[in-house]
Amino acid sequence: MSAALVQQLVDGFAALMLLTSFALLAQHRMLSVLHWFAGQGLLLAATAAIVAYGTDNEELYISALMALLLKGMLLPWLLRRVIRQLHVHREVEPLMNGSLTMLVALGVTLFSFHIIQPIEKTSLLMTRDSMAIATACVLLGMLMMITRKKAITQVIGFLAVENALFFAAIGATNGMPLVVEIGIAFDVLIAALIFGLFFFQIRTTFDSLEVDTMNAHLIHKDDDE
Amino acid sequence: MSSASVQIIQAVMLLLFAPLAAGFVSTCKARLQNRRGAGVLQPWRNLRKLFKKEVVMAHHASWVFRFAPYIVFTATLMAASVVPALLVDTPLSLTADVIALVALLALARFFLALAGMDIGTAFGGMGASREMTFSALAEPAMLMSIFVLSLSAHSTNLTTMITHTLNSPFALHPSLAFAMVAMVMIAVAENGRIPIDNPTTHLELTMIHEAMILEYSGRHLALLEWAAMVKLLLFSTLIVDLFIPWGMTAQADLTGVVIALGLWVVKVAGLLFVLAVFETSMAKLRLFEVPEYLSGAFVISFLGLLSYYMLEVGA
Amino acid sequence: MNTAIMLALAACSTALVAALAPLILRQPVAQRTGLSLLLAVTGLLAMIAGIYGLVLGGDALILPLGLPWLPMHVRLDALASFFCLVIGSLLFPVAIYSQGYLRDEPRLTPLAIFMPLFVLGMLGVVLSDDAFTFMLFWELMSVSSYFLVTFKHENLENRKAGYIYLVMAHLAGLLILGSFAVLYAAAGSFEFSAMRDATISPFWASAAFLLAGFGFGTKAGVVPLHGWLPEAHPVAPSNVSALMSGIMLKVAIFGFIRVCWDLMGPGDFQWWWGALVLAAGSSSAITGVLMALQQHDLKRLLAYHSIENIGIILIGLGLSMLLAHFGHPMLAALGLVAALYHTINHALFKGLLFMGAGAVLHSTGTRDMESMGGLIHRMPWTAALFLVACLSISALPPFNGFVSEWLTFQTALMAPQLGGALLTAIVPFSAAMLALAGALAATCFVKVFGVVFLGHARTEVAASAHEVDNWMKVGMAIPAVFCLLLGLLPVLFIPLMDSVPELLLHASLAGSIHAHGWLWLTPIDIAHSSYSAPIVLIGMLVLGGLAFWLLHPKGRTIRRSVMWSCGNPHVNARMQYNATSFSQPLRRIFAGIYRPEEDLNIERSRHKLLADNVRYAVHIGDMAVQYLYQPIGKLTLYAAKLLQHEHQRGIHAYLAYTFITILFLLAVYI
Question: What's the gap in Å between the CA of B146 and the closest CA on chain A?
């Protein structure tokens, strides 16, 4: 593979990354959110592998493998189990109208492009073009956390933010040192497990996974005391 | 061979192959559903039958109803003759750029919708209302994907755009991929295929196109059906032109044209086969999910624009 | 003094004579004929003066009128000539139309006085060359149009509309005056020539731009300053609505171009001016058409479409501003030409639409679309001419609306020439909004034509409608012909208006437009984009003729029969889709914007599945009125209440106020 082709592939994956972030925002059903999330993990793995190939950086292959196993398979599988066992409603419940969310998302993307452009010019890496997209994906993940009612979708939003940060790390510095990366990966895994446990706990306490309900309960409790 | 004669061959070809293309799609669908199907020639047989039949019109139908089929048919045919299929630079291709091409199809749709209103039934108005609404919502996505395509070619003339693609070295362009997905989604909606509308049903409460032409008969109906088939082939050719033009000839010599014809048939058939697979594997959308589908197409085309600036300008 | 300006002044004097004529002519017939004849002459003179001015160039002149130290300066430059042409080309057919339209009008005198004064005001604004003359004629235009809006003052609706109109027109006048004040401070003179030469600091230039933008924007009906427009246009007599919507809004556009492009100049432009105009244009276009889609009062619907089209013009102007700022005068000229082309196009087709609506109103006595239907059988001529206007406004080839929207798209496609990431993405977005607005306009006019002219008659009045007289037919036919000609031959018309960008931007399009002969419209170059309306029309005529000839039944006639009704024998006119049902999908899709107040009543006496009677009512208010105007109104009332008790004190308090004011002024100014 020539360097130009590697560059184009990285750009292509960056574009797909942006697409998956938008798709996560646009989905109506919990399971399809999960599918897109898994797709994003696989995409990350592929990007890491390509960048590893392009820069002859062997540590990145390990990152790629970790992304594949953890983000592409393990986490989606865990979440899927949680969804199955909790019988969470299949519909994702957004707080904001769908088209409006999309417009805001487009605006956010445009904004991050506007902000990153001056920084990009100073970089010489072959992955520099994807910086703006990585930033946009981080913001879109946050947007997803803001605009959804269910705790599970918020967790997926959180994980999407983490994915985007991973992508940004590949883009900005050709990957973080392996130790850091392994640390983060385990953190995320543990976080996901804890979230999973919490879901069950929350459910038994509040009878619901909606953040609003939890708020209402807490406030109510305060009044009681 | 002069380019004018290729132009005529091309236009006649689009006109005559259109029923075959429609027949091809339905045959593919039939096979995918384990049926035998009526064969690729069935649309031609239908048209021949309709042309022979008597025309019946409602008492109060006005001249709009009577002449709409001719206007729809000629506007579609005019649009079809503008699109290059074999030769890159045909005499008529400069008549209208992509935006004008879309406007010609809009002219056809305008009269079709008026004809739907003219008969004064609930069905006609319903079809007209839905057709115009959904096509209006499709328009921004259409324009945006044209915009993305014109960014690298600096042109909206089909000939220039095709030449640009043919002459530039092969490279992956994420923006073009986005534009293509959006364009295909819009083409599906504009042609009233599944998941937007089902061209094979009559008297369904969710029908759009069929509701407008419910009252037509005889040669008028034949013209409208034919126009719809030409439109399908026109959009297929347009997508092939814009995204996979390789094989089209720049000189109007016999061998070039023959090769271009062969490749065009293969490419269009491939595209139509994909359409058949999609139509078989998907269910029709609920009517009020269509706007979401269309705004999805717009978002995708806008992502194409953004990724062009993010990834391709700097590189 | 050259011929062009002489003709223009002759047009003004004819209008003045027309305004005075009713004082001598007392008979309604004489008044009507005098009004139509003199206005037709005015229109013709203005048209010729415009063409002369554009081709041969105009002249400046100082009239021995006005204030002692500031005589009236008039000037006919390329910009003024173009707008003279716009005014004349609609005024002429409207004058002919009026001869028929006003036939049954018993009380003609106010109309016969104020309509010529209104025309005089518009011509004066266009010709003026100093701020004083400009404001004088501007106010003449506003006040006389107020009297035209309240012509049928016995209706409460008209008085209310007139009041809102007067308030907003004066607010606009005040803002424009402010803009001139800023320019006066820089130039030290009220004369436009001094303002052109003066240099102005970026801050004050922006102040003048904002004041002018809001002032002229209010008059042009830019969202959210459009509140008066959908109230005032429908209630005026239709020939006046045609003038108000067709020309008066364009005079506001003229004022905006005059102040920004001419008095300040492209050198003063900031990038955010263009972005602001672009945003205002896009939002006007979308809001206008979305509101129009939900109307069932024919003239009110057309009024909302005026807002949409003003938005389209502003998109062209905003693009031009942006491109001029970033140093592309040629492309800026293209944007300006697109906007100007749409200006004259809109004048023609909107005038025609209002005349058509007037014809329908004249023969059915109602503006409510829900009680029309099937008029194409009773009024074939009106229907055909109205259809031409519908096709034009829907931007369909080969008519004129398409050409100007196409040129606007071509300008927008030049966005990559602009610097900055934000602009290069915002411009395509507004182009997409333009595409949406254009397609929704087509939806709306399918509704209008379908509900008014096609189908079955919904009421008795619609069933017994009659065709209008020849005056009105001719009045409508002239703009229809122009619509087709401007759509077919843009290559011949654009060089005529080329002197406007030459004057304002020092860039000419003549080279690229004309490069490939009259057949091909090539705004930038032929490799970039091209469009040939004549070939499209000829091609369609040939193909359509061929198809018709091949398929025409030789000896076989078309069998007429009752329409198919799924076996239900009781089909009646109320089963048709009407205006409200046609727009139902959009009402549902854009429910978040419309916030419709729906009321559904189903009476069931026999069984819960058997409805005896279903009533559905929907009301959609204007968002701007609801969320902007009413709060401002309430705030004003509240402030007035706070001050109320101050008014109730005795004469001594008032004397004390005066005294304190004098002391304050002395302290400040001496």
Answer: 19
Query: What integer is the mean pLDDT of C273-286?
Result: 94
- Which residue of A113, A120, A128 is in closest CB contact with B306? A113
Local confidence band at A225 (pLDDT 50, 70, 90 cut-offs): very low
Q: CB-CB: which of B100, B125, B126 is closest to C397?
A: B100
Q: How many whole angstroms separate alpha carbon C577 and alpha carbon C583?
A: 10
Please state the three-class secondary structure of chain B as a single string. Answer: CCHHHHHHHHHHHHHHHHHHHHHHHHHHHHHHCCCCCCCCCHHHHHHHHHHHCCCEEECCCCHHHHHHHHHHHHHHHHHHHHCCCCECCCHHHHCECHHHHHHHHHHHHHHHHHHHHHCCCHHHHHHHHHHHHHHHHHHHHHHHHHHHHHHHHCCCCHHHHHHHHHHCCCCCCHHHHHHHHHHHHHHHHHCCCCCCCCCCCCCCCCCCHHHHCCCCCHHHHHHHHHHHHHHHHHHHHHHHHHHCCCCCECCCCHHHHHHHHHHHHHHHHHHHHHHHHHHHHCCCCCHHHHHHHHHHHHHHHHHHHHHHHHHHHCC
- CB atoms A133 and B310 under 8 Å: yes
Are B314 and A22 an interchain contact pair (Cβ–Cβ within 8 Å)?
no
Residue C532, chain B, CB below 8 Å: the answer is yes
The whole-angstrom distance between residue C36's C-alpha and the CA centroid of its chain comes to 22
Residue A125 pLDDT > 50, yes or no? Answer: yes
- Answer whether B303 sits within 8 Å of A7, measured CB to CB: no
| CA-based nearest residue in chain C for residue A116 | C421
pLDDT for res C57:
82
C612: enclosing H helix or E strand:
none
**Residue of higher predicted confidence among C651 and C553:** C651
Give me the domain span that covers residue B63.
3-313
Number of domains in chain B: 1
How much is the average pLDDT of C359-368?
A: 92
Q: Is A150 helix (H, G, I), strand (E, B) or coil?
A: strand
The average pLDDT across C259-281 equals: 92
Q: What count of CB pairs under 8 Å joins A to C? A: 12
Residue C347 near residue C247, CB atoms below 8 Å: yes
* C523, pLDDT greater than 80: yes
Nearest to B125 by CA among B106, B139, B137, B112: B112
Q: Whose CA is closest to C432, among B298, A104, B103, A107?
A: B298
- Out of C406, C442, C530, name the one closest to residue B94 (CB): C530
Answer whether C419 touches B (CB < 8 Å): no
Whole-complex ipTM: 0.95
A4 vs B171: CB contact, 8 Å cut-off?
Answer: yes
| Dihedral (CA of B275, B276, B281, B284) sign | positive
Question: Which chains have 3 or more CB–CB distances shorter than 8 Å to chain B?
Answer: A, C
The sign of the dihedral angle between the CA atoms of A49, A50, A54, A55 is negative
Cα C526 from Cα B91, distance rounded (Å): 13
pLDDT at residue C530 is higher than 70: yes
**Subunits with 3+ C-beta pairs closer than 8 A to A:** B, C
- 3-class secondary-structure state, position C598: strand
Residue B307: closest C-alpha in chain C: C425
Which is more confidently placed, C647 or B239? B239
Report which listed range, A152-156, A174-178, A196-200, C529-533, is most confident.
C529-533
Q: Give residue-wise pLDDT tens across range B138-182.
A: 999 999 999 999 888 888 889 999 998 888 887 778 889 999 999
Q: What is the pLDDT of residues C44-100, one digit of tens each?
A: 999 999 999 999 887 888 888 777 778 889 999 999 999 999 999 999 999 999 999
The domains of chain A are located at: 3-224
In angstroms, the CA B312 to CA A47 distance is: 18
Residue C317 has pLDDT above 80, yes or no: yes
